[in-house]
Amino acid sequence: MKSWDFHKMCLPTPGQEAVSPLLVTARFAALLLLFALLSRAARSTAMPTVTIGMPGGGEIEQTATCSGAIMPQKETRILLPEEITVTEVRVQVGQSVQAGDVLLCLSVEEPQSRLEDLDAQITQLRAQKNQLTAQPDYAPTDPITDAQLALQRAQEDQQRYLENPDTSEDAQLAADRAVQDAEMALQRALDTYAEQQRQADASNAVSSADAAVLQQQIDDLLEEQEECKALLETDGQILADTAGIITAVYAVAGSSCNGVAATLGETGSGWLLSLEMEAETFHDLPGQPSQIEVSQGKVSGNGTLQSSRESDGKTILSVLLDDSSWTSGNAEAVLRFPSLHYTTCLPVAALHQDSSGWYVYLVESTSTILGVENKLTPLPVTLLDKNETTAAVEGISLQAKVAVRADKPLYAGDTVKVAAS
Asked: Are 229 and 169 in the same domain?
């Protein structure tokens, strides 16, 4: 229809009554309103629908999930003599053993040769130790005795001169000087003896320390000697001293194992869970866990934190388990930390993030000729804490209306529909 057709329709045809201009304007406005309503209805079907929430106080509990390994609380180290070849390893990690079970087999020729070497080393070390401990505490005292006797004689001569009225003044002075000289000689003898004794004490202290080192070496060799003798008695077999579970194996068949060959966890001694997480992650958590929930297959229970340490950027947690139904192996744990109270909390879904930081969308309503219109306005906030469901923020009013959920992606300036509460 051309533009003049509308005006033509408003003009009276022959035989018709003329239409007033006011009525024409009203019809035109009604038509525009109809178009606007139809357009608004079309746009409303494309609008995101949001659910509004308001900040409020709440508790936020932090949790962390990590994996670890369960092992017996008490472990026994299986030690092997040095330079003895392992011929067979009969156990593996996680295997249950009974007291007397064969764990490893070693060469039987090497222990006999090793025993001869040990005997020679022990004999030599004992001889060295005897030389050190046999040294006497020596500091000669003869000069002191001689000086004391000389002083005594000088004092006796001095006294006789004093008692004799015929003694000349020169004789008396000579007797006095003799006493003084004797006293000085005695003091020198005493000082010399003290210095000699100090040097002897220092020498004896060094000798005693050296002797203690030698004795420790002797004790170590004696212990290894007993191990070699025990090996010969069992034909090279290493037996379990107690029932338990093998928690680690370090020995390899065909090579020597200087030190710990395996570790045996004693059953009935309780269970420990060793957990590992990134140190930075652990430090971001609020303090120590207040509860530790552990699961291993169908078995679940709680644990108590015993200790924590850091190694190579990791935090290693040692957890004592409160049940006896566990077995050695992998397990999962949920660490729950004390809850903190915040005055302005929102659902995590209300938070958005960009290169500038965190923000939320405020829903601001304005009245128009077509009704109430709701628009989104971004508001930057500071994130204080959050978990999987709740976030604590600051920089927002408790009366703010926030878009907490939406059925479509949201953008600043969007016009949205508000879901009925």
From this structure: yes
pLDDT at 86: 92
Spatial separation of the C-alpha atoms in residues 118 and 124, rounded to whole Å: 10
Closest C-alpha to 91, from 328, 402, 306: 328
CA distance 357 to 380: 7
In the chain, the number of structural domains is 4
**Residue 46's pLDDT band (boundaries 50, 70, 90)?**
confident
- Say how many residues make up the chain: 421
CA 96 from chain center: how many Å?
Answer: 30
Res 243 pLDDT > 70: yes
The pLDDT value recorded for residue 45 is 61
- What distance lies between CA 208 and its chain's CA centroid? 41
- What CA–CA distance (Å, rounded) separates 73 from 265? 7
Q: What residues contact residue 405 under an 8 Å CB cut-off, 6+ apart?
A: 50, 51, 347, 349, 350
CA distance 268 to 32: 87
Q: How many CB atoms are closer than 10 A to CB 240? A: 19
The CATH number assigned to the domain holding 289 equals 2.40.30.170
Q: What mean pLDDT do residues 332-359 have?
A: 94
323 and 292 share one domain: yes
Q: Which of 286, 321, 336 is where one domain is finished?
A: 336
Q: Which domain does 320 fall in, by range?
A: 65-74+266-336
Q: Residue-wise over 328-360: b if at least 16 C-beta within 10 A, else e? A: beebbbebebeeeebebbbeeebbeeeeeebbb
Of 42-51, 188-197, 283-292, 341-350, give the lowest mean pLDDT range: 42-51
pLDDT in tens, 165-179: 888 888 889 888 999
Residue type at position 187: Q
Helix (H, G, I), strand (E, B) or coil at 227: helix
Locate tokens 């500091």: which residue? 139
Tokens representing 214?
A: 């030698």
Strand-strand pairing, 49-53 and 415-418: parallel
Q: What is the percent of the chain with per-residue pLDDT over 90, rounded to a whole number?
A: 37
pLDDT at 84 over 70: yes
